[in-house]
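Technical note accompanying the year-one report. For the benefit of new consortium partners, we illustrate the data format agreed upon in the data management plan: each record pairs a sequence with a structure-token string. No post-processing was applied to the example shown here.
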Amino acid sequence: MTVGLTIYVLMWPIFVGVTMFVIARGFFKEWAQARREGRMII
């Protein structure tokens, strides 16, 4: 029971980290493309 609860609690920061990484990667990819094209991202 304790091990299961520990794993459950510790998996959320991993999920959040992966999600933030995917969002940031997409943002920086689009930002770099916009800079190459000489336009604003917004």
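Partners are asked to follow this layout when depositing records. The mean pLDDT is 95.
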